[in-house]
Every structure is written in C-alpha cells, then in structure tokens.
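Supplementary Note 2. Why include the ligand at all?

Several targets in our set were suspected to adopt different conformations when bound, so apo predictions alone were not considered sufficient. For every target with a known small-molecule partner we therefore ran a joint prediction. The input for fe (ii) ion is given below.
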Amino acid sequence: MTQSDTYTTRPFDLHGLNGISDRTVDMHMKLYEGYVKETNRLTRLLREFLKDGKVDQEEMPAYSELKRRLGFEYNGMVLHEYYFDNLTPAGANGPAHNAAFRAAAEESFGSYERWKADFIGVGKMRGVGWAVCYQRPQTGQLSNHWITLHETGNVAGFVPTLVMDVWEHAFILDYKPSERGSYIDAFFGNINWRVVDERVTRAQVSVAAHSR
Ligand SMILES: [Fe+2]
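The joint prediction is reproduced in token form.
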C-alpha cells in the first residue's frame, strides 16, 4: 500500500479550552486515532476483495459488512477533524459583526440568534450523534442537521461549516449525561469562528465557480 492510501492522525493543540478539560481532549484524541486506524484497516481489507478485479457473489456478505462499517469509521474520522478544527482555546462567543457566517445565518434564519437556537436545539436531541451546520454550495443557504452515529443524516455535497460532537464521550468527564446543555454552552465559548468563516468563504467561492 502506498502512502497516499493511508490517512494519518492529524495533531490538534486544544489544551486550555474553557469548560472542556484537557483530560476530555486527550481521551477524545485517542478515540479519533481509533477512527483513523479503522478507516485505514477497512480500506486495506476491502482492497483485498478487488485483487482479482471483481467482487464475487460468495464474497458479498463479508464485503457488505466491511463497506457499511467503512461509512461509520470514515465519517467518524472526518467529523472529528471538523470538530477539532472549529475549536480553539482562544474562542470568541459569537462570529464578528462583519463575518461571512453571521451574514449567511441572518440570510438563512432571519438572525444569528435564531440560527443559534436551532443549532442548540439539534445539539440537545436525544440520541448519539452530531449537530452539523451545513451550507448548501449552490445558494449559500445554511441548515442545521442531526447526524445519527457518524454516518446517517449527512447531506451529500453540502459543506460542514460548524460541527459539534454530542456523543457523551465529548463531555462525560466534565458533565453529567443530563448536563449536555452545559457542554453546549462551553462548546460555544470555544468556537474558532475564523475557521468557520473560512469554510463559508470557500463554499461561496465554489458557488461563484459553478455559476460561471
Ligand atoms: Fe467524538
């Protein structure tokens, strides 16, 4: 296998967050590493099936199971990278007044506060998963979505602009299971709005390219 076939664990420097302990961050990084390893392992195993250039009928049950698990592990890896990327110990509690994200939220929801209420609503949904604010590249519209586990509910082709892990492992060392709202408050105090704005800007560049 060549290097280009293998994902490597990305480093993130997230010690010193407000309300999310270093212990939580360290444990979360270990879990993320597990997703990277499993993505690489499953990719390698699946490649074996194609060695003869086809997937045989008798191989189909094992192949199907590995493919389904790949969706779980792959999205687990990618969503964690979005999540860690949109956190910083120097977070600001809200996007700047001239931020592209704020403008997109106002356009899509009427106000930033209404967007935030919807995003927090998604984050408090019962179940194991993620709250993701997506931008539709064709129009710039923002919409908030619930992702079950890692792979169910992602919208194909939409750009994740803000990603919040609400699996219990994201906060259980710092908060009780019933205190997810406190974790969400802490999350909002640590958002790297510069990164979020870069994602929005990139999506807008992509809209411009498509409309040419
Ligand atoms: Fe997580």
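The chain is about 50% helix and 10% strand. The chain has a mean pLDDT of 94. Comparable summaries for the other entries are listed in the accompanying table.
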